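Form P-L/3: holo structure prediction, ligand protoporphyrin IX containing FE.
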Amino acid sequence: MIGALFRSGITGGIMPLPKRVMQYKLSAFLNINLQTMNTAMTDVRTRRFRHLGMLTVAAVYCLILIAGAVRATGSGMGCPDWPTCFGQWIPPTDVSQLPANYQQIYAERGYADTEFNATKTWIEYTNRLTGVVIGILIFLTMLASRHFRKDNKLVTRLSVAAFFAVVFQGWLGSRVVASNLHPVMITLHMLLAQAIVAMLICAVMRSQHAVVSREGLAELPPVFKKVMIAAMCMTLLQMIMGTQVREAIDIIARSEATRSIWIEQLPLIFILHRSFSWVLLATNFWLVYQIVKHIPASNPMRKLGIAQGVLILSTVVIGVIMNHMDIPAFVQPLHLCLASLIFGVQIAVFLFYKYGTQIHSGDDSKEHREVHSKADRPVAATGSV
Ligand code: HEM
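OUTPUT (holo model):
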């Protein structure tokens, strides 16, 4: 390439150019090429971070589903110890692989009712393995976020915070087992999982914040942002009420195995949780209506908005199924997973709106300008996240 440059008149022309002009042209050429290379590297790193972040988010949702299945199938004590399972790194598949007096051993450690069940042990172990995969993924996400440490610090900070939250979550998981699945400990564990997902989604969205699509955003009513924030707070409140319902069910289930009478024994919080769904439905449907009406299909925010509506409806339908069909075990994890997805999608929709309107109204902060100048390239014009 440099040879071509020299051949194209800088040196080989009829009249040789003065040395300084030649040096200037050469350095300008090299500069342009270095800039192109830097731009390409930035694109690759940004994309890598986005993919890793989204993969980690998907893995955390899988874990929420599996953890729900652990609870619904009563596999929480499938491994009475931690981090090993029945003292082994690869758990037994048959009771013959355990010492004859294993029940006595675990009774002495405070787990009086330990009874080996291969299915439950492996469900719990799959739960732990998924946790390990998430640990690795979140570590890689944190490494990939280093790329943003100068221009877009929040991405790095959120990724590092999510990493430490996952480490803490691993420790909390051990405390949940140690507490013999105390309902409050399960609730804390679940809420931290929601916080981890929220941090990751915020980090991924922030890494794209200068390039999200702004199509149709100006058409949305000004009150949209406030209603969106209210909807997110309501979802959080509904989830906290849900955990109270779940805690009550856990307590009832310990003394009463017949599922058909669980619902009638539930305290007032269940009625509140159920009735509040109407408020959530109305608020979210208004938001979805505004999104569908004003945001064109080319803007990914529209797809997310529709997903938000479908998720909220599905969660309520599953809630109604639980109410009328004696809480079937297989829908319990679904209810939790869909509720978690609603919250995650709402955060993404909100950030699409926030970052889209920031560009629209000409956000001029130093950090914004820096990121914008780097990332405002056609490849990201649709701002797919
Ligand atoms: C959008 C609306 C809803 C959201 C976001 C939501 C969210 C939740 C959450 C997060 C839990 C805790 C799950 C766990 O910790 O394992 C829960 C539990 C529960 N919810 Fe909902 N819920 C909604 C609507 C409903 C409706 C309409 C009903 C009933 C008609 C209902 C019935 C229940 C029951 C029975 C539980 C306890 C489930 C269990 O023990 O596994 N929910 N809900």
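COMMENT: The chain has a mean pLDDT of 84.
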